[in-house]
Design brief:
By secondary structure, this protein is of the alpha+beta class. The chain contains four helices and seven strands. It is globular, with a radius of gyration of 15 Å.
């Protein structure tokens, strides 16, 4: 994995970020990764092809918020998301990692050890979930 810092945004990065945010917000979110020292965007590459990305924001007390996480649709379910979270955790030793997500992704976070709490219907008809990982770094496990 390596940090993504190219300006302007590369097409592959734009596609991946569009999976994690609305297409209308991709450029704005990417701009925050380029200009905010608290934000970092990392890419996951297979054979020099970008297949995943994870964007974080580092807060006080060395806490981390996952702002965006996305994997190429053809490679989902192969452990890439887990590996990206493990990389972030192992290379930064955060006291906690937090993510907010929807019902579609909550199982992903639960399966890699995050504690899940419903935030209720934050938007009309959309239940959101708080996902928190605290304590020692994730242990490497093989995925099914």
């Amino acid at each position: 994995m390596e940090m993504i810092q190219s300006n302007p945004i590369q097409p592959a990065v734009k596609v991946l970020l569009s999976y994690a945010t609305s297409k209308t917000k991709v450029d704005q979110e990417y701009d925050l990764y380029i200009h905010s020292p608290a934000r970092k965007l990392y890419g996951y590459y297979i054979d020099q092809e970008l297949v995943g990305c994870i964007g974080i924001e580092i807060g006080d007390a060395h806490q981390c918020v996952i702002k965006h996480i996305a994997v190429s649709s053809a490679l989902r379910g192969k452990g890439i998301g887990r590996e990206m979270v493990q990389f972030i955790n192992h290379h930064n030793s955060f006291s906690s990692i937090y993510a907010e997500t929807d019902r579609d992704a909550v199982i992903f976070y639960k399966n890699i050890g995050f504690h899940i709490m419903s935030l209720g219907e934050k938007y009309p008809g959309v239940e959101r979930f708080a996902c928190l990982l605290s304590g020692p770094p994730l242990q490497h496990t093989t995925s099914n």
